[in-house]
Amino acid sequence: MTGDETGAAAAGPGATHEFEGRVVLVSGGSSGIGRATALAFARRGASVVVAGRDRPRGEEVAAACAALGAHAAFVAADLSVPDAAAKMVERARAAFGRLDIAFNNAGIQEAAAPLAEQPDAVFEAVFGLNVRAVFLAMKAEIAAMRELGAGVIINNASVSGSRNPNGGLALYSASKAAVLSMTRTAALEYGPAGIRINAISPGRVDTPLMQTAAANLGLPVERIAASLPARRVGRPEDAAEAVVWLASDAASFVFGHDLAVDGGFLAS
Q1: What region holds the Ketoreductase domain (predicted)?
Q2: Which of 182, 191, 142 has its CA nearest to residue 161?
Q3: What CATH number should be reported for the domain whose range is 8-261?
Q4: Which of 1, 162, 238, 268 has its CA 20 to 30 A from that of 91?
């Protein structure tokens, strides 16, 4: 565990105490949107638990959070293993004694191929991490938050869950549609218990996952950017700020919502 420094001075310009006293769990936190989200919460005073499979990179993110003045810890978690989600939440609670906010961010995308050519094992891998792991994490997170009488869960979906713009990624798109459906239903079920559950749907955000997908589909990033009303691809920080807002008290009346962070993709 790291993070003995506290205070806005250590965190640098723009730091606040908005989430002071709250514990945030970020799965898939070692890179991309997860990394940016962990740092965004750290700047705002939260204690941050970074979870992921890549220990060196995850520990680097936790150290970066500590350098911003946050208490931070890394938890090793391979969420493709069924019992790993519950253990992740248990270890997060053990690190700081509670769980207030969870961002279920870990996910994978298959190599592009027509649906009938996708092996059964690829289906199992995509749905195992993108759907089953989110389901199991939510079960454990909800149980922890019900003890507090409050909490926030944000699931990372995708614009592909609402609109599939390219052939070859049917499994990824279907898995993200399932995440959106689970999010909305769980929001109805647990909102009365004080637990707000929402999702973000990133569009073309510059992460390793997007770069791999663009290469698989033969789409240059410049062409993707030119097709968007924003005329640029997103930054991981764009998605991170959406997560932070959904977790904040400013969004206290937002339940079961899917917040698109897509540069206008779904509107076009």
Answers
A1: 22-203
A2: 182
A3: 3.40.50.720
A4: 238
